Amino acid sequence: MKKIIQKIEAFSHTEYNLEQYKSEKNILELIESGKDLFGRDLEFEIAGTNYEFPKFINTEEARYKFKEYFFTK
């Protein structure tokens, strides 16, 4: 979660560097519901455990390196 907030704060579009977009509760709810963090008309889906990631992502090294980017329900 902290990496998402850091990215928003570093993002060049300052109109998104607002508390409403950096609220951990709000971010988590939007991710879980598959909605865009900035209210745009975009949706996404969380990949399940059966999703075929590239081989590198399935290594312990990658899971450790990118652990802050993976969410579990």
Give an account of the 3D structure.
The chain is mostly helical. It contains 4 helices and no strands. The chain is globular and about 35 Å long.
Short summary:
With 73 residues, the chain is an all-alpha fold. It has helices spanning 2-10, 19-22, 24-33, 60-65.
Q: Helical residue percent?
A: 25-40%
Shape: globular
Number of E-type strands = 0
Multimeric status of the protein: single chain
In sequence order, what are the helices and strands, one letter per element? Answer: HHHH
Radius of gyration: 14 Å
- Cα-to-Cα separation, first versus last residue: 14 Å
Give the amount of beta strand, in percent: under 5%
Descriptive tags:
73 residues, 0% strand, globular, mainly alpha
Topology summary:
Blueprint: H1 2-10, H2 19-22, H3 24-33, H4 60-65
